[in-house]
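lol forgot to send this yesterday, sorry. C-alpha coordinates for the thing we talked abt
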Protein backbone atom coordinates (compact mmCIF):
# COMPACT_ATOMS: atom_id res chain seq x y z
CA UNK A 1 0.00 0.00 0.00
CA UNK A 2 1.35 3.43 -0.96
CA UNK A 3 0.46 6.70 0.75
CA UNK A 4 1.11 9.96 -1.11
CA UNK A 5 1.11 13.13 0.98
CA UNK A 6 1.46 16.59 -0.55
CA UNK A 7 1.62 19.96 1.22
CA UNK A 8 0.62 18.74 4.68
CA UNK A 9 2.36 20.60 7.50
CA UNK A 10 6.06 20.79 6.64
CA UNK A 11 5.77 17.96 4.13
CA UNK A 12 6.08 19.15 0.56
CA UNK A 13 5.94 15.65 -0.87
CA UNK A 14 6.02 12.13 0.57
CA UNK A 15 5.45 8.74 -1.03
CA UNK A 16 5.39 6.15 1.74
CA UNK A 17 5.04 2.40 1.20
CA UNK A 18 3.32 0.47 3.98
CA UNK A 19 4.17 -3.15 3.39
CA UNK A 20 5.16 -4.29 6.87
CA UNK A 21 7.80 -2.09 8.51
CA UNK A 22 8.27 1.55 7.51
CA UNK A 23 11.10 3.54 9.13
CA UNK A 24 11.19 7.33 8.82
CA UNK A 25 14.36 9.10 9.93
CA UNK A 26 15.45 12.71 10.07
CA UNK A 27 16.47 15.53 12.34
CA UNK A 28 14.00 17.40 14.54
CA UNK A 29 11.24 19.49 12.97
CA UNK A 30 11.22 17.76 9.58
CA UNK A 31 7.71 16.33 9.70
CA UNK A 32 8.46 12.77 10.81
CA UNK A 33 5.52 12.70 13.20
CA UNK A 34 3.26 14.39 10.63
CA UNK A 35 3.37 11.34 8.37
CA UNK A 36 2.10 9.10 11.15
CA UNK A 37 -0.53 11.58 12.33
CA UNK A 38 -1.96 11.98 8.82
CA UNK A 39 -2.26 8.22 8.30
CA UNK A 40 -3.61 7.72 11.85
CA UNK A 41 -6.29 10.38 11.25
CA UNK A 42 -7.26 8.95 7.86
CA UNK A 43 -7.70 5.45 9.26
CA UNK A 44 -9.76 6.70 12.22
CA UNK A 45 -11.96 8.90 10.01
CA UNK A 46 -12.53 6.08 7.53
CA UNK A 47 -13.46 3.57 10.25
CA UNK A 48 -15.79 5.95 12.10
CA UNK A 49 -17.58 7.40 9.08
CA UNK A 50 -21.07 6.35 8.06
CA UNK A 51 -22.82 6.88 4.73
CA UNK A 52 -21.11 9.77 2.92
CA UNK A 53 -19.80 11.57 6.00
CA UNK A 54 -16.11 10.75 5.55
CA UNK A 55 -15.10 14.39 5.09
CA UNK A 56 -17.00 15.38 8.23
CA UNK A 57 -15.21 12.74 10.30
CA UNK A 58 -11.89 13.66 8.71
CA UNK A 59 -12.42 17.23 9.91
CA UNK A 60 -13.14 15.89 13.38
CA UNK A 61 -9.79 14.10 13.34
CA UNK A 62 -8.02 17.19 11.98
CA UNK A 63 -9.40 19.12 14.94
CA UNK A 64 -8.42 16.44 17.47
CA UNK A 65 -4.97 15.55 16.13
CA UNK A 66 -3.80 18.74 14.39
CA UNK A 67 -5.77 21.31 16.39
CA UNK A 68 -7.44 22.32 13.08
CA UNK A 69 -4.15 23.28 11.42
CA UNK A 70 -3.21 20.76 8.74
CA UNK A 71 -2.92 22.37 5.29
CA UNK A 72 -3.93 25.41 3.28
CA UNK A 73 -3.96 23.33 0.10
CA UNK A 74 -2.90 19.69 0.34
CA UNK A 75 -3.90 16.14 -0.44
CA UNK A 76 -3.49 12.55 0.68
CA UNK A 77 -3.84 9.62 -1.73
CA UNK A 78 -3.88 5.93 -0.79
CA UNK A 79 -3.22 3.31 -3.45
CA UNK A 80 -3.26 -0.47 -3.26
CA UNK A 81 -1.24 -2.16 -6.02
CA UNK A 82 -1.50 0.99 -8.12
CA UNK A 83 -5.27 1.30 -7.73
CA UNK A 84 -6.46 4.50 -5.95
CA UNK A 85 -8.68 3.61 -2.99
CA UNK A 86 -8.70 6.88 -1.01
CA UNK A 87 -8.20 10.46 -2.12
CA UNK A 88 -8.57 13.36 0.31
CA UNK A 89 -8.21 17.08 -0.46
CA UNK A 90 -7.70 19.84 2.10
CA UNK A 91 -8.27 23.56 1.71
CA UNK A 92 -7.96 26.20 4.44
CA UNK A 93 -7.32 23.42 6.98
CA UNK A 94 -10.57 21.64 6.16
CA UNK A 95 -11.35 18.42 4.30
CA UNK A 96 -13.16 19.45 1.11
CA UNK A 97 -13.18 16.09 -0.69
CA UNK A 98 -12.97 12.48 0.48
CA UNK A 99 -13.31 9.91 -2.29
CA UNK A 100 -13.08 6.21 -1.50
CA UNK A 101 -13.68 2.74 -2.87
CA UNK A 102 -16.05 0.93 -0.51
CA UNK A 103 -14.80 -2.55 -1.32
CA UNK A 104 -11.10 -1.75 -1.04
CA UNK A 105 -9.08 -2.98 1.95
CA UNK A 106 -7.66 -0.63 4.53
CA UNK A 107 -6.41 -0.89 8.09
CA UNK A 108 -8.95 -2.00 10.67
CA UNK A 109 -7.36 0.10 13.42
CA UNK A 110 -4.42 2.38 14.12
CA UNK A 111 -2.57 3.19 17.34
CA UNK A 112 -0.12 6.07 17.76
CA UNK A 113 2.40 5.76 20.61
CA UNK A 114 3.80 9.24 21.16
CA UNK A 115 5.12 8.92 24.70
CA UNK A 116 5.16 6.38 27.54
CA UNK A 117 3.87 9.07 29.88
CA UNK A 118 0.32 8.15 28.87
CA UNK A 119 0.58 6.01 32.00
CA UNK A 120 0.87 9.18 34.09
CA UNK A 121 -2.49 10.36 32.71
CA UNK A 122 -4.44 7.21 33.53
CA UNK A 123 -5.99 8.63 36.71
CA UNK A 124 -6.87 11.87 34.89
CA UNK A 125 -8.49 9.99 32.01
CA UNK A 126 -10.37 7.80 34.48
CA UNK A 127 -11.90 10.99 35.86
CA UNK A 128 -12.74 12.24 32.36
CA UNK A 129 -14.39 8.92 31.52
CA UNK A 130 -16.50 8.99 34.68
CA UNK A 131 -17.56 12.55 33.88
CA UNK A 132 -18.56 11.56 30.34
CA UNK A 133 -20.59 8.61 31.65
CA UNK A 134 -22.28 10.80 34.25
CA UNK A 135 -23.23 13.36 31.61
CA UNK A 136 -24.73 10.65 29.42
CA UNK A 137 -26.89 9.40 32.31
CA UNK A 138 -27.90 12.89 33.50
CA UNK A 139 -29.50 14.49 30.48
CA UNK A 140 -30.35 17.74 32.23
CA UNK A 141 -26.68 18.56 32.83
CA UNK A 142 -25.00 20.43 30.00
CA UNK A 143 -21.86 18.57 28.88
CA UNK A 144 -18.64 20.27 29.84
CA UNK A 145 -15.75 20.62 27.45
CA UNK A 146 -12.45 19.17 28.64
CA UNK A 147 -9.60 19.55 26.18
CA UNK A 148 -7.11 16.68 26.17
CA UNK A 149 -4.77 15.13 23.59
CA UNK A 150 -6.80 12.65 21.57
CA UNK A 151 -3.81 10.45 20.68
CA UNK A 152 -3.17 9.92 24.41
CA UNK A 153 -6.86 9.24 25.02
CA UNK A 154 -6.94 6.61 22.27
CA UNK A 155 -3.98 4.75 23.80
CA UNK A 156 -5.49 5.08 27.29
CA UNK A 157 -8.69 3.34 26.18
CA UNK A 158 -6.72 0.53 24.57
CA UNK A 159 -4.50 -0.20 27.57
CA UNK A 160 -7.28 -0.02 30.17
CA UNK A 161 -10.23 -1.72 28.45
CA UNK A 162 -9.38 -5.37 28.97
CA UNK A 163 -11.36 -7.74 26.71
CA UNK A 164 -13.04 -10.88 28.05
CA UNK A 165 -11.15 -13.10 25.63
CA UNK A 166 -7.38 -12.72 25.43
CA UNK A 167 -5.53 -13.19 22.15
CA UNK A 168 -3.60 -16.44 22.52
CA UNK A 169 -1.45 -15.49 19.51
CA UNK A 170 0.31 -12.79 21.55
CA UNK A 171 1.21 -14.98 24.53
CA UNK A 172 4.86 -15.32 23.49
CA UNK A 173 5.08 -11.58 22.78
CA UNK A 174 3.73 -10.68 26.22
CA UNK A 175 6.03 -13.19 27.89
CA UNK A 176 9.02 -11.69 26.07
CA UNK A 177 8.14 -8.15 27.20
CA UNK A 178 7.64 -9.25 30.80
CA UNK A 179 11.06 -10.89 30.71
CA UNK A 180 12.68 -7.70 29.41
CA UNK A 181 11.17 -5.44 32.09
CA UNK A 182 11.19 -8.12 34.81
CA UNK A 183 7.51 -7.66 35.57
CA UNK A 184 4.23 -6.54 34.06
CA UNK A 185 1.48 -3.94 34.18
CA UNK A 186 -1.53 -5.40 35.99
CA UNK A 187 -4.83 -4.39 37.55
CA UNK A 188 -4.69 -4.18 41.35
CA UNK A 189 -7.59 -2.80 43.41
CA UNK A 190 -9.07 -0.90 40.43
CA UNK A 191 -5.68 0.64 39.62
CA UNK A 192 -3.00 -0.37 37.17
CA UNK A 193 0.40 -0.93 38.76
CA UNK A 194 3.73 -2.33 37.69
CA UNK A 195 3.98 -5.72 39.35
CA UNK A 196 7.61 -6.73 39.91
CA UNK A 197 7.76 -10.08 41.70
CA UNK A 198 5.85 -9.46 44.96
CA UNK A 199 6.05 -5.67 44.80
CA UNK A 200 3.32 -3.43 43.35
CA UNK A 201 4.83 -0.16 42.10
CA UNK A 202 2.62 2.86 41.42
CA UNK A 203 2.75 4.18 37.85
CA UNK A 204 4.32 7.49 38.83
CA UNK A 205 7.30 5.61 40.26
CA UNK A 206 7.98 3.45 37.20
CA UNK A 207 10.90 4.27 34.86
CA UNK A 208 10.02 5.67 31.43
CA UNK A 209 11.69 2.80 29.56
CA UNK A 210 9.65 0.22 31.45
CA UNK A 211 6.50 2.23 30.75
CA UNK A 212 7.27 2.10 27.02
CA UNK A 213 7.48 -1.68 26.94
CA UNK A 214 4.46 -1.75 29.25
CA UNK A 215 2.35 -0.01 26.60
CA UNK A 216 3.18 -2.76 24.13
CA UNK A 217 2.48 -5.41 26.75
CA UNK A 218 -1.01 -4.07 27.47
CA UNK A 219 -1.80 -3.46 23.79
CA UNK A 220 -0.86 -7.06 23.01
CA UNK A 221 -2.89 -8.43 25.93
CA UNK A 222 -5.91 -6.32 24.96
CA UNK A 223 -6.05 -7.55 21.33
CA UNK A 224 -4.75 -4.27 19.87
CA UNK A 225 -1.76 -5.70 18.00
CA UNK A 226 -3.35 -7.82 15.29
CA UNK A 227 -3.15 -8.33 11.51
CA UNK A 228 -4.42 -5.34 9.52
CA UNK A 229 -3.66 -3.06 12.48
CA UNK A 230 -1.20 -0.20 12.09
CA UNK A 231 1.09 0.67 14.99
CA UNK A 232 2.82 4.07 14.80
CA UNK A 233 5.75 4.62 17.18
CA UNK A 234 7.17 8.11 17.56
CA UNK A 235 10.87 8.42 18.52
CA UNK A 236 11.00 5.72 21.21
CA UNK A 237 14.74 6.25 21.70
CA UNK A 238 13.94 9.37 23.73
CA UNK A 239 13.14 7.08 26.66
CA UNK A 240 15.31 4.03 26.06
CA UNK A 241 18.91 3.07 26.81
CA UNK A 242 20.73 1.93 23.62
CA UNK A 243 20.55 -1.70 24.81
CA UNK A 244 16.77 -1.49 25.14
CA UNK A 245 16.57 0.25 21.76
CA UNK A 246 18.01 -2.93 20.25
CA UNK A 247 15.50 -5.07 22.18
CA UNK A 248 12.63 -2.88 20.99
CA UNK A 249 13.85 -3.07 17.39
CA UNK A 250 13.90 -6.87 17.57
CA UNK A 251 10.41 -6.88 19.11
CA UNK A 252 9.06 -4.59 16.37
CA UNK A 253 10.41 -6.81 13.61
CA UNK A 254 8.80 -9.77 15.37
CA UNK A 255 5.47 -7.92 15.43
CA UNK A 256 5.63 -7.54 11.67
CA UNK A 257 7.00 -10.98 10.90
CA UNK A 258 5.09 -13.19 13.34
CA UNK A 259 1.98 -11.16 14.17
CA UNK A 260 1.45 -9.43 10.79
CA UNK A 261 1.12 -6.00 12.40
CA UNK A 262 2.03 -3.05 10.18
CA UNK A 263 4.45 -0.64 11.87
CA UNK A 264 5.62 2.89 11.17
CA UNK A 265 8.46 4.06 13.39
CA UNK A 266 9.98 7.55 13.45
CA UNK A 267 13.53 7.83 14.74
CA UNK A 268 16.68 9.91 14.79
CA UNK A 269 18.69 7.32 16.69
CA UNK A 270 21.47 5.52 14.77
CA UNK A 271 21.23 2.67 17.32
CA UNK A 272 17.53 2.14 16.64
CA UNK A 273 17.76 2.50 12.86
CA UNK A 274 20.77 0.19 12.53
CA UNK A 275 19.06 -2.42 14.73
CA UNK A 276 15.88 -2.25 12.67
CA UNK A 277 17.98 -2.70 9.54
CA UNK A 278 19.86 -5.72 10.92
CA UNK A 279 16.81 -7.53 12.30
CA UNK A 280 14.55 -6.76 9.33
CA UNK A 281 17.17 -8.05 6.87
CA UNK A 282 16.95 -11.44 8.58
CA UNK A 283 13.21 -12.02 8.18
CA UNK A 284 11.26 -9.16 6.53
CA UNK A 285 13.71 -7.48 4.18
CA UNK A 286 11.23 -7.28 1.29
CA UNK A 287 8.57 -5.77 3.57
CA UNK A 288 10.80 -3.04 5.03
CA UNK A 289 11.27 0.49 3.71
CA UNK A 290 13.51 3.26 5.05
CA UNK A 291 12.94 6.97 4.42
CA UNK A 292 14.77 10.18 5.25
CA UNK A 293 13.06 13.54 5.66
CA UNK A 294 15.24 16.06 3.86
CA UNK A 295 14.77 19.79 4.36
CA UNK A 296 14.66 21.70 1.05
CA UNK A 297 13.99 25.34 0.13
CA UNK A 298 10.33 24.48 -0.53
CA UNK A 299 9.78 22.38 2.58
CA UNK A 300 10.45 18.78 3.52
CA UNK A 301 10.79 16.04 0.93
CA UNK A 302 10.63 12.43 2.07
CA UNK A 303 13.21 10.33 0.21
CA UNK A 304 13.37 6.54 0.17
CA UNK A 305 16.84 5.30 1.16
CA UNK A 306 16.10 1.59 1.59
CA UNK A 307 18.88 0.45 -0.74
CA UNK A 308 21.55 2.68 0.80
CA UNK A 309 21.37 4.01 4.35
CA UNK A 310 24.78 5.72 4.20
CA UNK A 311 23.23 9.12 3.47
CA UNK A 312 20.87 8.68 6.40
CA UNK A 313 23.63 7.75 8.87
CA UNK A 314 25.88 10.53 7.58
CA UNK A 315 23.17 13.11 8.21
CA UNK A 316 22.43 11.79 11.71
CA UNK A 317 26.12 11.68 12.62
CA UNK A 318 26.77 15.38 11.93
CA UNK A 319 26.44 16.34 15.63
CA UNK A 320 29.18 13.83 16.52
CA UNK A 321 31.41 15.29 13.81
CA UNK A 322 30.87 18.80 15.18
CA UNK A 323 31.66 17.60 18.69
CA UNK A 324 34.83 15.92 17.49
CA UNK A 325 35.90 19.10 15.73
CA UNK A 326 35.36 21.01 18.99
CA UNK A 327 37.53 18.52 20.87
CA UNK A 328 40.25 18.85 18.24
CA UNK A 329 39.97 22.64 18.23
CA UNK A 330 38.78 22.79 14.63
CA UNK A 331 36.38 25.63 13.95
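and heres what i got for the seq, position by position
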Amino acid sequence: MEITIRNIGLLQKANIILDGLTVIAGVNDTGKSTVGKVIFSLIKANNMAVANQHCQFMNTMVNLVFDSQISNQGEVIVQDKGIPIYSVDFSQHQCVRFDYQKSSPFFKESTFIQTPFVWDLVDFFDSVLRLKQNQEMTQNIAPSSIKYPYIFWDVYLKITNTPVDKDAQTTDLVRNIRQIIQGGFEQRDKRIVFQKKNESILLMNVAAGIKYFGLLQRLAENNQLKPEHLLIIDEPENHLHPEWQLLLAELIVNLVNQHKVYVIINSHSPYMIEALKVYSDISIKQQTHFYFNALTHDGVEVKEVTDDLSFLFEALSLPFQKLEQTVLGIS
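The longest strand covers residues 83-91. anyway ping me if u want another try
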